[in-house]
Amino acid sequence: MEPRFNLMANELGAKIGKRFANVSLAIQQSSLPQTIQDLVMLRASQINGCGFCVDFHSKDAAAAGESAVRLNLVAAWRESTVFTEAERAALAFAEEGTRLADAHLGVSDQTWAQIREHYDDDQTAALVYLVAVINAANRLGVIVRNPGGSYQPGMFADLAN
């Protein structure tokens, strides 16, 4: 499968992409644990069917030391025993924030309460932006049909510079 369009090879696409990467960098540099960020990005990408993003986030998480068992169970986190309560809250938040069209009420009060129980204000802000940004990235990948399989961990490290 070939991509329909290379956004980064287009001058305007690259300009917008750099700004997009800077938002992602601010989230990455926040106090929200990287493990939570990786799990949330992987789960949203699975839901949205973005092969490139699933490839990207699973490989980055593995390179950061995440276990294959946990990565393989992200799609079935509710039926798994390998995630902490804080991780489960973040995964529920990611799903509810991603499935807006499926669950028109958005994030439930119960899930929001769990987020606030486990995450401080800065981490909550980062989590809200993370769910929004990964959903936007998934849509970009799906629209231009970026295929999964070719990502190498760290290959976008200098994009935000």
From TrEMBL:
Residues 18-96 form the Carboxymuconolactone decarboxylase-like domain. PANTHER family: 4-CARBOXYMUCONOLACTONE DECARBOXYLASE FAMILY PROTEIN (AFU_ORTHOLOGUE AFUA_6G11590), BLL7811 PROTEIN. Transmembrane segments: none annotated. GO terms for molecular function: peroxiredoxin activity. InterPro entries: AhpD-like (IPR029032), AhpD_core (IPR004675), CMD-like (IPR003779). It comes from Streptomyces sparsogenes DSM 40356. This is Carboxymuconolactone decarboxylase-like domain-containing protein.
